[in-house]
Amino acid sequence: MLPQNVAAWIRTPKADLEIDEAPYNEPGPGEILIRNEAIAIQPLDASVRKAAYMPIPYPFILGSNVAGTIEAVGAGVEDFKIGERVVSSTPTYVTKETKWGGWQKFVSSKPEMTAKIGEANYDRAVAISFPLSTAVSALQVYAGMAKPGEGEKSAYEQEKVLIWGAGGAVGGYAVQYAKSVGHTVIATASPRSFAHLESVGASKIVDYKSTDVEAQLRELGPFKFLMTASGDPTSQQVLASLLQPNGGRFISVRAGEVELPKNVERIYNMFEAAGQGPEFRHWWYTTYLPEAIGGAVEPTPTEKRSGGLKAIQAAGDDVFSGKAKSKIIVNPQE
């Protein structure tokens, strides 16, 4: 007899979630099935539910980042065995099929989008993986930053990096990645995040609400790489101004809400590792992510909420509204 699967369904655009039965999908060729032990509530997921951020078929199961144990493997899968502990990015927003949705007890995924985590904590693994992949793929694939260990760190010290919005998960991991390569990192954040950012490698932190924030940053520059991990209009305007008079480009986690000077390029994409090329994905899932989860990266603050799948609704609302100050983790097996 197959185990019973349960999911948090969204039936119509912007609707409340409904907890109900879902199919238990035996893995097909080249697929794995994961017993889902930890979900991190991502801003993307919260935006799709609350604001219909992207088109999806309804009813649907949201979520694309999970951690748990391998429940079953399909034909041709050789690198993963039943019982192994993993973290995975599912292709739910690409395929738009419910079996890949992370907000359920048993979720399908792909081996090439999955990393082994050994004895690492599930909560730690799922909290780190998605925002870290956004930061790393943005800086490496799109901005051209090197990988850790490529060349001497001292060669990069004079190349300053500016991370705006470093108090959030993506920004905090961007600080750590740039520092691991060898760069001198300047960050903006609110004062409550200063101590954490100093501990993970920021050389100087500026309060983003300071009336003279642009002047302070200009004094600390110039910058080889610029990234806004908040993507808000103010950050985009400031970064564009800092690039004058010669122009340049900056990374943003949000699309264009601000008209930029003609000599400034805003680089925007989904950035997540699963959407990158095979070479990057292989390095990410087999080498970098397991090392990061194993201790090479310090996780940003997390909050564990009880209630299982029923807790996702309120958690997502808090993430969408900005009330959540930490990465919220839920165990769907509760």
From TrEMBL:
Recorded superkingdom: Eukaryota
All copies of domain Enoyl reductase (ER), residue ranges: 14-330
Alphabetical UniProt keywords: Oxidoreductase
SMART domains associated with the record: PKS_ER (SM00829)
Keyword Oxidoreductase: yes
Oxidoreductase listed as a keyword: yes
Single GO MF annotation: oxidoreductase activity, acting on NAD(P)H
Annotated protein name in UniProt: Enoyl reductase (ER) domain-containing protein
Native species: Cladonia borealis
